Records
---
Amino acid sequence: MQHNILDFEKPIVELENKIEELQHLTESGELDLSSEIGNLQKKLARLKKETYEKLTPWQRVLIARHPRRPYTYDYISLMVKNFIELHGDRAFADDKALVGGLGTIGTQKVMICGHQKGKDIKENLYRNFGSAHPEGYRKALRFMKMAEKFSLPLVCLIDTPGAYPGIGAEERGQALAIADNLLEFFKIKTPIVVVVIGEGGSGGALGIGIGDRVYIMENAYYSVISPEGCAAILWKDRARAPEAAQALKLTGPDLKQLGIIDDIIPEPLGGAHRDPERAAELLQETILAALSELKQLSIDDLLEARYQKFRRMGVFQEDTTQ
């Protein structure tokens, strides 16, 4: 029995279950239904293509939040060799919502960090649902400084609904921790590649979101606020989240057009959770290609290009002829 089925996926799942039933009858020798199975498989392929190529922004948000979607640890296990995890911010605690360490992608040694959610309620509570505390961002800053010290590229994987807004986090300097990271990321003398792999929520994402290359996976989103939060503020009605998702321009094509990201990393049909191994391959290819380009630049050119990249965001022209 399949779980975590999204509403718009129900016709696909029903057809998959029907094909599975017919295959079972054929394999048991009761009936030869090969022809019917073939027709249904063609119908299924068309239905998947029609469904997943025309997803609305809200539907992509739902896929980005899918509980079976690969998280940072999943990608590390699939594409990072000889991974050595590092812990703690050397000041207060080890934030379980933001993880990272040293490893090798392909033949390239890297420092990698990212947000980590849980696979079930118990783990989500342990990981604080991927919402980092200030010590998490200070841990990321520590990783960043270490990467610079040992001339290692830094890879950041974003997947958070936002930084934790609790009283304790605010008391320990949540805003300052994120602001420090924004400042320091611009000065770090090593290539940085950032990928939004799931949710990219507000300052929680920006805390590890400054890079020489910024990518988003096909069914991820990157936004200043969640669709539900936006709907609650604008219309006092969280049920209008799908409408807010449309207005926020939070998916890959809109973000690329606005110059917020460099490119979109494709996912297996139906989302990364349907084929994590292939999703990891596509992610690895993009990271290695980006690092290969960035390594050709001098440190001065790298830092200047990084600075100008973010200065260009939000630039607009005002019509003064009226």
---
Amino acid sequence: MGYYLDFEKSLEELETKIEELKKLSDGTEIDIASEIKRLEKKTKELRSEIFSNLTPWQKTMIARHPERPYTLDYIGMIVEDFIELHGDRRFADDPAIVGGVGKINGVPMFIIGHQKGRGTKERIFRNFGQPNPEGYRKALRLMRLAERFKIPIVTFIDTPGAYPGIGAEERGQAEAIATNLMEMSRIKTPIISIVIGEGGSGGALALSVADRLYMLEHSVYSVISPEGCAAILWKKGGELTTDDFSRAADALKLTADDLKSFKVIDDIIPEPLGGAHREPDAIAKRIAECITKSLESIQTKSPAKLIEERYKKIRKIGSLTQTGQ
């Protein structure tokens, strides 16, 4: 039946009932098709109602859904002839970031993204999608390779943030992120970035300096997680609650709708009803179409023009309005 979030419990009950009725009707003469059809209609209406009124905190939960497609899932669905490349040529290969070269709709591209991992063993291997400095340096190495061969770059953003461990700090976590921000701003080939799940802090920014930045409908993108924000602002010895996290999520303005209204992102890619994990093939197709369409509008630009427009785009983020005295 899959994994259900807290606010989906009513859906879980209905879908469990539908499955039970389907099993009951198998191999018997009992005709309960009309009842199944009635429940399926009710389920669809309920799902539509729930997902048309999501709070920012609920969207955060969907962005973190364990069944949501990750970078390697999308690569498997939309990238042909993918060859993964490893290592930063300085320290190690970081499994929290995957990257390589392949084709999307027949066009060669470098694809780079965070990878969280499924199941305890893989999540530990991938460090829960939290890159070390070598991960960002690997990503930058691949971007420079793409620039050398004049191949477009696509990045998939999905991380709680860069890993804050002692080893990561010793190896220059802040410097690695800062270098990526600087170098991506002047890479002489098109860059398209898509937030597919959780875009957390500098760990997300280090792969999202782009000519076009998109978000999936139920993804989030912010300077800090709602839990981290709540802990800084309101924790005074007692335990924080879900209400605190929800309050922080509201204040952070981290949803795709918020960020489009602020002109931080270029557009939103709609998800299937219920989230990307409900119909992964459908959302993968939309992502591929978005990449192809975006590339058509920027690939004819000269490197100098591309960099100039990317610079202006970044400088426009954020604005100040002065009212009367």
